[in-house]
Design brief:
The chain is of the alpha+beta class and 272 residues long. The protein has two domains: 8-127, Beta Polymerase, domain 2 (2-Layer Sandwich), CATH 3.30.460; 160-265, no CATH class. The protein contains ten helices and 13 strands.
Length: 272
């Protein structure tokens, strides 16, 4: 059966109205609770999590557990690389459609529309922890983070140390900014952060010498977000200049071209 061609503007209507035919029904009205102490979770998100567990996918939530009942942005997941085929199959059965992610590796996106709550649910799945506007800092920390994950009820989360450093690197290298919610979460986690752990070493290597992990921890405790933003800018420049200039330029141009193409070329959803 040939593929059905859609434009970018057609993606949401297709998810809303037609992509779930032949699939399991996604969710109900009420947020689900996944055990004692676990946060409330939107029914469509909860069903996706149950599907991953049922498919023996090794995964954990990267951040945003307090927003799961009514997610306004992406739901960020870390998944073992070898488990992606099972994840794709499990989400497809629930009606989650994959979105084109050209130029955004290692990110993969899946979207579904939940009619009962009139909400579009988007999962942002990564198999590698990489940071920067163009993923300039690529790490090998994913396997260790998954091995160290902990459970709150039935919900798998990063360890507090890993949660602190992944969020800090996200704020500093991806955003170069600290939202109020991220500041609050960093302050909750900083007391359990280790300046000698795997991700602390990654951060220390990314930042300038005067901004080693221990210094960054002290700045978070002092809530000196301006100093941290300056360090983030220095770190971004440091990462950018690790490659020859022409290689950097070609890489950025290629990624930008792929991202534009992903937005404007006709969108194809494989037939089920």
């Amino acid at each position: 059966m040939p593929e059905r061609v859609q434009t970018r503007d057609d993606v949401r209507p297709a998810v809303e109205g037609g992509s779930q035919s032949g699939s399991e029904e996604v969710g109900s009205h009420a947020p689900a609770h996944r055990g004692r102490g676990a946060p409330a979770i939107h029914p469509a998100v909860s069903q996706a999590f149950d599907a991953l567990k049922g498919s023996n996918v090794q995964w954990c939530l990267l951040r945003g557990e307090s927003d799961l009942a009514s997610p306004n942005g992406d739901v960020d997941l870390l998944v073992a690389r070898g488990d992606m085929p099972r994840l794709r199959a499990a989400l497809r059965r629930l009606g989650f459609a994959p979105l084109r992610a050209w130029g955004r590796a290692p990110h993969c996106f899946f979207v579904a529309y939940h009619e009962a709550t009139a909400r579009r649910i988007k999962l942002d799945v990564v198999t590698q922890l990489a940071y920067g506007p163009y993923q300039e800092l690529q790490t090998d920390a994913a396997a260790g983070c998954l091995a160290r994950r902990r459970y709150v009820g039935a919900l798998p989360l990063l360890s507090p140390d890993d949660a602190f450093w992944t969020l800090l690197l996200h704020c500093m290298l991806d955003r170069q900014a600290f939202s109020a919610a991220h500041r609050e979460r960093l302050l909750e986690l900083v007391g359990r952060a280790d300046c000698n752990g795997e991700l602390a070493n990654v951060a220390g290597a990314a930042f300038a010498e005067r901004s080693e992990a221990a210094i960054v921890l002290e700045l978070v405790r002092a809530q000196d977000w301006e100093a941290l933003t300056r360090i983030a800018q220095d770190a971004s420049a440091h990462l950018t200049h690790r490659r020859p200039r022409f290689v950097r330029r070609l890489r950025v141009l290629a990624i930008r071209a792929l991202r534009r193409a992903a937005n404007f070329l006709p969108y194809r959803v494989a037939s089920r």
